[in-house]
Amino acid sequence: MQRWSVRDSRGHEIYLTAERWEHIQDRHPELIGRLDSVLDAIRRGRREQDAILPSKYTYINRWEDLWPEYNCIVVKVLFRFTTADDGSAVENNFVVTAWPAYMESLER
């Protein structure tokens, strides 16, 4: 299965599968052809931890060249762990979804 991996500003590896990318494009055609922008939102975006599910994070990054009604890309990521062959815990952080949004006050 094809997937793309990036590191966020804190060094965590996060991946996006081809299946999730297809889901994102099907639901949000504004992001068709914007794979690099979605991955950059993870690399450089502001990160917020979910108040109810602490293993879920939101990455938000401003983009000036989105459709006129949008000024940022929002990416939801789940942080998980799997067990390696040697029994150690290994990060398994993945993109759940992403969408374009408009936010009045969005710090760079």
Mind explaining what this structure looks like?
The chain is an alpha+beta fold. It contains two helices and eight strands; from the N terminus they run ββααββββββ. The strands form two sheets. Strands 1-2-8-5-4-3 form a six-stranded mixed sheet. Strands 6-7 form a two-stranded antiparallel sheet. It has one domain.
Number of helices: 2
C-alpha geometry:
globular
Main beta sheet: 6 strands, mixed
Order of H and E elements: EEHHEEEEEE
- The low-confidence parts are none
Strand fraction: 35-45%
Relative helix content: 10-25%
Compute the separation of the termini in Å.
Answer: 34 Å
- Per DSSP E runs of 2 or more residues, the count of β-strands stands at 8
Structural class: alpha+beta
Computed Rg = 14 Å
The pLDDT mean sits at 93
What multimeric state do the chains show?
A: single chain
Q: What is the strand arrangement across the widest sheet?
A: 1-2-8-5-4-3
Number of domains: 1
List keywords for this structure.
two-stranded antiparallel ribbon, alpha+beta, 108 residues, 40% strand, 6-stranded mixed beta sheet
